[in-house]
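Design job #97: recover the sequence.
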């Protein structure tokens, strides 16, 4: 095997991750879920504003339905 970043896995073009025990995989997952919750809570305004601006920009450039 050529190393973690030389091989690609089934999730699109994401590099393969190293093998983990069941317990380690769950620990990492729980950390990432909690981190994501905290991140979204802390930066909700910025995230919402970003997507709102993109949505409005897409509406302005979209073709009319007729």
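Job complete. Output follows.
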């Amino acid at each position: 095997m050529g190393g973690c970043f030389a091989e690609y896995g089934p999730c699109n073009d994401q590099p393969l991750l190293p093998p983990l025990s069941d317990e380690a995989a769950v620990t990492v997952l729980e950390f990432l879920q909690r981190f994501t919750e905290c991140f979204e809570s802390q930066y909700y305004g910025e995230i919402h504003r970003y997507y709102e601006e993109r949505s409005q920009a897409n509406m302005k450039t979209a073709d009319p339905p007729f």
